[in-house]
Amino acid sequence: MDDFEKVYQDRLKRENIQQMPDRIVRSAPVKKKRGNIDLPFMILTIVLLTVGVIMVLSASFARAYYENDNPLGLFLRQAFFAVSGIVLMMVVSRFRAVTFRKWSMALLAVSIVMLMLVPVIGTYANGARRWINLGFTTFQPSDVAKLAVVLAFSAMICSFKDKMKTFKYGVLPFAVIVVIIVALLLLEPHLSASVIIILEAVILMYAGGTMGKWFIIGAAVVAAAGVLVITVFGYAGDRISVWLDPESDPLGDGFQVLQSLYAIGSGGLTGLGIGQSRQKYLYLPEEHNDYIFPIVCEELGFIGALLVLLLFALLISRGFWIALHARDKYSSLVVTGLTGLLAIQVFLNIGVVTNLLPSTGISLPFFSYGGTAIWMQMIEMGIILSISRDIPVTKAGSD
Predict the structure, then answer these.
(1) Could you tell me if 98 and 128 are in contact, meaning their C-beta atoms sit under 8 angstroms apart?
(2) How far apart are CA 148 and CA 144, in angstroms?
(3) Surface-to-core class of residue 186, CB atoms within 10 Å of its CB (0-12 exposed, 13-18 middle, 19+ buried)
């Protein structure tokens, strides 16, 4: 029995909770009244989203004025998506896990179709074709694919059960799906989303019982593929060169990294104050999007940035707490996958803006500008809140 499964089963036995049989999870919803949503998780989500919207206001002010003569334009749009996102989160929290499982494979199929459409009808920007224009906004099908992978892989794992220890069931079907999605993402190209999808799959497969030796083999394959991608896609190799020595091209590829580090360093211990950033005045590219965290550091300082990271750590910890207390294995896997997805995105974004990792186009959840991205994040949080409602009330408040 794998480590995750052992911890999960020990928790159920220790708290005398009878795990819901898998056949019940797949059947029609039980009419039993559900409990309340997990309040700490909801509060942490809303607090992070609120701080994120405030930082978008500060970070986007100068660029919005320069480009559209409307300093509040980007902020008002982000505020609309944030408020509607909270409503969306609460609506999704009303659905049961059986609903997510029922539509998981269909969502995966739709996400793959959308990824196939991106090279044909996608919008080209910043050297890549990753977006589909909806008229009132654009969205990245990769965001849908991330959620679909979590829901579908969780359902597959529950269906395969003990067969997850075999290559035929525990590796092959998951690998085929990941290869298809990653291949489509590389056509855009979207390297960061490819990395996230792979890491998502690893987390879920490990939690589901896939044997460790397959991860070692898989890591070797991914490493070889990474070398190939760097060789074929020149932009990846350039980014690694800049990552190792950003000052080698301070006005070219190294410009953004250096400006990001200037912003982080100039914040000091307590920061320059909300709205007082200097790098946001068109020095730092993507200051309201992927590189919003350096503005947080510049305005709130080391202490403020540390508090933001602490809020993320508390949210992620609470997510895994919900996963361990989930009523059934499918729900536990879904929360594990979505919480892992959140953790991956936070780690990669912070790693990129601090030059710990090579530059990739990855946003900071709840902070980076983007309407449909906020909606997808709030849907994911709504799914976790939905699953938290099925935790036994007597046990949910005991820890």
Answers:
(1) no
(2) 6
(3) middle
pTM summary value: 0.87
- Laid out side by side, the sheet with 138-139 consists of 123-125, 128-133, 138-139
d(CA 191, CA 230): 10
Question: Pick from 126, 142, 150: which is nearest to 192 by CA?
Answer: 142
Dist CA 204 CA 215 (whole Å): 12
Contact 361, 192 (CB under 8 A): yes
Count of C-beta atoms within a 10 Å radius of residue 146: 24
Of the candidates 245, 153, 287, which has an alpha carbon nearest to the alpha carbon of residue 208? 153
* CA angle (210 as vertex; 208, 212 as ends), nearest 5: 130
Residue ranges of the chain with pLDDT lower than 70? 1-32, 126, 226, 229-239, 393-399
Which secondary structure element, helix H or strand E, spans residue 139, and what is its range? strand 138-139
Rounded CA gap, 138 and 158, in Å? 34
Residue (of 316, 4, 12, 317) closest to 157 by Cα position: 4
pLDDT in tens, 354-370: 998 887 778 999 999 98
Detail the DSSP E strand segments found in 275-339.
none
pLDDT digits (tens, 9 = 90+) for 246-288: 877 778 778 889 999 999 999 999 999 999 999 999 999 999 9
